[in-house]
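note to self: the first set is below, dont mix up w the second
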Amino acid sequence: MLQEAGVNVVADVRSVPASRHFPWFSKKNLAALLAQAGIGYEAMGDALGGRPRGETLYSDGVADYEAMAMQGAFRTGLDRLQDLAAHSRVCLLCAEREPLDCHRCLLVARRLAERGLRIGHILHDGAIEPHAATEQRLLSVTGLSPQDVDACDLFAPGQEERLAAAYRRRARAVAFRRKPLASDHMAEKR
């Protein structure tokens, strides 16, 4: 699929680039397999991963993509990706099959598109879906598409507001959830 899409670099945005179930997707094995196919590998999960380390990057135990996007390390990671994309055809790799279920779309691709990069999502059948079409699906699955808004409502949100709300709603539904900390349990007992 990568070769058919013309990809020559994979940017791995997994926070933990390993897999017990599929060991060939672990960082070291994957980098070697990609090299054999003439495709480069860049580990970028430290800056662009979906499992943040800081407590302030969670809201009620759920990774907060909007807070993550404001971090300097994240923006530096985007800069690095943008530089890479200037001379390579880059594919972001994470663990989810469906773009709308993954931070690579809801966090990383969103911010790259805001920077003016042309984004496409390789779907399970090899088709490449333009990011704008993915955003339309996002609006639909979150119930925020134009058809769902009352046309007579003068205060109905515009396209940008609906899209931002759709990103927030979907991220809240699918983002990484951290396990409660011991301090959380102690606070509950008080």
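second set (the one i keep forgetting abt)
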Amino acid sequence: MARIHDVLLDFTFAAPAVATTSLCIKRRVLVSARRRPLRSVDQLRAAVEAGQVFRSPNELLSHLLREQASALVEIVRKFKKRVDPMEDQLLAKRISVSRKELGSLRRMLVRLQRLLAPEPAAFFRLVNQPPEWITQEELQNLQQAAEKFSTAISDTAALVERVKQLQEELAAIVNEQTNRTLFVLTLVTVLALPINLVAGLFGMNVGGVPLAQHPYGFFLVVGPLLVLTAFLAYWGLARRRD
């Protein structure tokens, strides 16, 4: 008796794209029970209807496991086709990549990995302690199928790590641009500070404002302010280059 996970026949990149099927395997019969159509089980059914001959239930089981691995490889390939353009954009320092889409891809991959990862270990335990009615050739076929499925799980784990690195790179680019924007805003504020301060002082409607009656009073005030602003701009840009 076994319960295995499999992707749905109409697999999408939505969360509920994995379902469970139950198996009962005996010397001459394999019975599967499921409530929703699954991809690898349906492919196995199509192979039987097409006239493919299986000599034992163990061959059916091996074929089912290989179909699971092939379905998982196809899913990983589809994920890679969506991840590759995102990676190229991030390498070009463009943040047009959607963080929401990356998070959705990672959640789906992690869910697939978490649900399907225990199956190879279970099949390897079956190979190590098989029933008496399983022949040596059937054990080898089952082991090869389990190894293929385990490789597909490893590819899924590698893709999860790749998506995680893309998320970290995207976060780093966003932080870098945010810091650059904050620096520019701070620099503009510093440059405008002397002018605003002096304008506020000279704009008070009180007596005794210096240079109020001087014919060149405006230039005497604005000139030093421009020199000070230029010095602050040079200092800020020099620090930015450093």
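remember for set 2: The mean pLDDT is 78.
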